[in-house]
UniProtKB/TrEMBL annotation:
N-terminal signal peptide: none
Originating species: Flaviramulus multivorans
Family indicated by similarity: Belongs to the MreD family.
Localization terms from the record: Cell membrane
Name the record gives this protein: Rod shape-determining protein MreD
UniProt KW Metal-binding keyword: no
Biological classification of the source: Bacteria, Pseudomonadati, Bacteroidota, Flavobacteriia, Flavobacteriales
Length: 168
């Protein structure tokens, strides 16, 4: 239990550090900006208390907001995907989620891709809607959501493949 706690603590701080130092400075064509800190929410253990993931997601988003000077939009988007995560897990993994036996390293690629895609797109829609906050700029919101989601998903899958443990 202590080992798992330390792994998630290290992941929490490493993702914040990577987001603040590296990924916040990528802004390709004004639309593409990856938000890889949501990997913490995606990989948080399913069996843990739901209140814990919502609280940690708030702290994660708030920390990103403090470093980015964005006024709480990352915290709101993070809390939203943490809250809706059980629905996304059930729709992506089906009965594996119901039996609480999800292992991301051994899950099939299609289920992982669906899971990452749903989490990322929902996060980005909330994030960019709050950032722009204008219904007249819905096209801009959708463009930023689409392009940033594609880039975030590609980087998330790549990082997941690189850092996943091989099981035999």
């Amino acid at each position: 239990m202590n080992n798992i706690f330390s792994i998630h603590t290290v992941r929490f701080f490493l993702l914040i550090l990577a987001q603040v130092i590296l990924f916040n400075h990528i802004n390709f064509l004004g639309y593409v900006n990856p938000y890889l800190y949501i990997l913490f929410i995606a990989f948080f253990p399913v069996k843990n208390n739901r209140i814990i993931i919502i609280l940690l997601s708030f702290l994660l988003g708030l920390t990103i907001d403090l470093f980015s000077d964005t006024g709480g939009i990352h915290a709101a988007a993070s809390v939203f995907i943490a809250y809706i995560r059980p629905v996304i897990l059930k729709s992506s993994f089906g009965t594996i989620y119901e039996h609480q036996t999800i292992k991301f390293s051994s899950a099939e690629f299609g289920a992982k891709l669906t899971y990452f895609t749903l989490l990322t797109v929902l996060h980005h829609i909330i994030l960019f809607s709050l950032e722009i906050f204008s219904i007249s700029k819905i096209i801009l919101i959708l463009q930023k959501t689409l392009f940033s989601s594609i880039f975030t998903i590609l980087l998330s899958i790549t990082i997941t493949i690189i850092f996943s443990r091989k099981t035999k």
